[in-house]
Design brief:
By secondary structure, the protein is of the alpha/beta class. The strands form four sheets. The protein has a seven-stranded mixed β-sheet with strand order 1-9-8-5-4-2-3, sandwiched between helices. A two-stranded antiparallel ribbon has the order 6-7. Strands 10-11 form a two-stranded antiparallel ribbon. The chain is globular and about 65 Å long. The protein starts with 6 loop residues before the first helix and ends with a helix.
């Protein structure tokens, strides 16, 4: 079986350094909010290109704390609206709802799967306070048009960079383009921990301070609580592991690009719609997504032939039970992607032989 993502092989690639890092933490006797967090936050902020990085428990929390901090700072209030892509993973939307804000769904561009910049302005109202762009599948969602809209309407630009570590826009890394960015280090991400972990990057000092406080029980200093906070901290072991893997992120992303290029040049089956990539630096290839009208048949065929695939995502947010009030809405492009999308194996440890085998099997498929 060619795995969708072989995490055992990914971890083994850095085994000696990870073992050294985790042993260092265990032997230190200090497991939270210590030197490993400080070092990773410094290294990751420098990598992304921001002044501040605040580690937290996971990627969802990272987004939640951005909006929560803006509410605490008086920049937003419950009932305000945040524009978000309709076809994103549910976490992007949950973070908005969690803070009493209203998600406003906007359809994607069918060619890029990113939020369609030409459809954003019509969704802006006097209650709109931010645009949350999601670099879905690892591809940069930002465009100059989006930047212009933020300036025109005085909107905050927030990035969901969970899938795009190492991606760039005109040389600038995603995660540093907007006012703040949420990052997930879920094990399967391009930069993945050995468990849940997340972070916020920003150039806004006040925002970073508020986020650090609300994620630590609301505490600005020990036993002093300014906010009604929660416990959402990045532990020392995960920080140490992430700092090891961060050193190899660009190298790993380069391998992902090589795999993607092989797929794009090698898959010739006319029934399969390949992603359109104009700038390989603007794509981290967290996911290599294809589409076909007979998606379920292709999934079963690949499974039968020893190729593991995943659907991102089979049920769009507006059709989920947790948002029943949206169930009768119609987002045709989002629904089309949900019905046709299939993600092929993609990782920095895939061999050329595995990639070529996937290509061969796909090209032999008769829809």
């Amino acid at each position: 079986m060619i795995k969708f993502l072989d995490l055992e092989k990914v971890t083994a690639k850095y085994a000696d350094e990870i073992n050294e890092a985790t042993s260092r933490v265990v032997n230190s006797g200090w497991y939270l909010q210590g030197k490993e967090n400080e070092k990773f936050e410094k290294d990751f902020s420098e990598y992304i290109g921001t002044k501040y990085c605040v580690g937290c428990a996971n990627g969802l929390d990272a987004l939640i704390w951005i909006f929560r901090a803006y509410v605490e700072m008086g920049v937003m209030k419950p009932g305000d609206e945040v524009i978000v892509p309709a076809n994103t993973y549910i976490a992007s939307i949950l973070a908005i709802s969690e803070n009493g804000l209203i998600p406003v769904l906007v359809e994607p561009d069918i060619n890029t799967y990113q939020i369609d910049p030409e459809k954003i302005e019509e969704a802006i109202t006097p209650k709109t306070k931010a645009i949350l762009i999601v670099h879905l599948y690892g591809q940069c969602a930002y465009t100059e048009k989006i930047g212009e809209l933020c300036k025109k309407y005085n909107l905050k630009l927030i990035e969901d960079n969970a899938q795009a570590h190492g991606c760039r826009f005109n040389g600038q890394r995603t995660g540093s383009i907007g006012d703040a960015a949420g990052h997930s280090f879920y094990p399967g991400k391009n930069l993945g921990a050995l468990g849940d972990a997340g972070a916020v990057t920003t150039n806004d000092e006040e925002l970073a301070k508020v986020i650090r406080a609300v994620a630590n029980y609301g505490s600005t200093k020990k036993y002093v609580f300014k906010y009604i906070g929660r416990n959402s901290r990045l532990d020392e072991i995960q920080a140490a592991v992430l700092d090891v893997k961060l050193r190899y992120l660009d190298e790993d992303n380069q391998r992902r690009k090589e795999v993607a290029k092989k797929y794009i040049s090698g898959i010739t089956n006319p029934e399969i719609i390949l992603p359109k990539v104009e700038d390989y630096d603007a794509h981290a290839f967290h996911i290599f997504s294809v589409r076909t009208k007979k998606r379920d048949e292709l999934h079963d065929y690949l499974e039968k032939n020893g190729v593991q695939t995943i659907i991102h995502y089979p049920i769009p947010p507006h059709k989920q039970d947790c948002y029943k009030e949206w169930n009768d809405r119609n987002y045709p492009l989002t629904e089309q992607i949900a019905a046709e999308e299939l993600s092929l194996p993609m990782s920095p440890v895939m061999t050329d032989e595995e990639v070529n085998e996937v290509i061969r099997i796909l090209n032999e498929w008769q829809a």
